[in-house]
Amino acid sequence: MKTNILTLALSFLSLTAFAQKSEIRDAGDAVEEGNYTQAQQAISKAEPMLSEANDKWSERFYLYKGQAYLGTGENISLENLNTAAQAFQKAADMGVEEAQDGLVAVRNSLVQGAISDQNSQNFSSAAEKLHTSYELSEKRDTIHLYYAANNAVQAGDYDTGLEYLNMLKEEGYDGSGVEYLAVNAETGEEEMMASKEQRDLMIKTGDYSSPSERQIPSKKGDIASLIARIHISEENYDEAIAAMEDAKRENPNDIDLMQAEANMYYNMGEKEKYNEIMEEVVQIAPDNASLYYNLGVNSADLGNKEKAMGYYEKAVELDPDMTDARLNMVALVLSKERDIIEEMNDLGMSEADNKRYEELQKERNEVYEEAVPYLETIIEKDPANLEAIRTAKNIHTQLGNEEKVEEMNTLLETANQ
């Protein structure tokens, strides 16, 4: 009787092993045919019996499982990509060389999915996919953690963003290096790849061409800026300042970092401190027109119009096409009109008042005449600038320049077409 029971048990084990091998084989065939749903179903049937499989069949099982859940790699859910990654990792641990390609493909799918999410402004999903890609990378690819942090901040998930940023800070992440690029054959757009290996793999598929490389500057300034921005938004100013001080100790002459610090103080309302730091920045980068423009904006906010005008003049000297600087110069000139109009409105009807009114009207016209050259330069460089055209039209109307008014009307009609 015992012998019969033993014989039956052995027979059952043989049948189980046979059924399990059959399901694994079916999964592999379905993967080959591109029928990934069928492959997943076969994998699900084989998995409960996996303990009975030998190493050879276990290796096949995990490889096929990874391939089944990865599918084409396009528009795959994060859950399925995680399942695929875990399966490929087990196969890789068992010595299956092909599994390494599977892990690369999973990470590529995660990155491409994150890019798609970013384009559709689904920043939370992009952050999650990039963080998953970071965790899957053997050497922990911190560039993905950096972009995950950026997306988390964009999504308003400051706690997660700060967690990732602090991880980068603790790891001493710098971010400088090489960026690997290739042109998408379908869209014609250049795209960034996660690594040289991934870029080379995508070139081999024929879906990408024209591989290239680009130097990446340090991102410590960006990280400090993001940490500070999070703390500022939550009014944790002490933490924001501390974050900047830490970064500055490592990069005392980093212009991006100095600008981030200046912007932090600007957001805190300490505009004098902003000016102080920005003055240091322009000493380091005296040919940067944007720095002078920003100093002009802040000086105007502080009420120092003469200094603001000097900064704007320097900005357009360095960058003659900087329309915003010229428009702000117009605004500074026209701001003189306010006091003149207030005095004109306060005058009475006496002979002395009428005489003063005529004097003030002449002064106002002089202000208009002073603004006209700036506006003419803007319109010459940007004939479709509606703000400049409308302002010029109003000024010429006040000055009685009918021909100029008609000219501005024509420009308005053209710009609105």
UniProtKB/TrEMBL annotation:
The protein's matches in InterPro entries, at most eight in alphabetical order, are given as: TPR-like_helical_dom_sf, TPR_rpt
Q: Which Pfam families does the entry mention?
A: TPR_8 (PF13181)
**Which SMART domains does the entry mention?**
TPR
Q: Does the keyword Zinc-finger apply?
A: no
User: What range does the record give for the signal peptide?
Assistant: 1-19
Repeat TPR: residue ranges? 289-322
Tell me the protein's name.
Tetratricopeptide repeat protein
Record keywords, A-Z: Signal, TPR repeat
Q: Does the keyword Signal apply?
A: yes
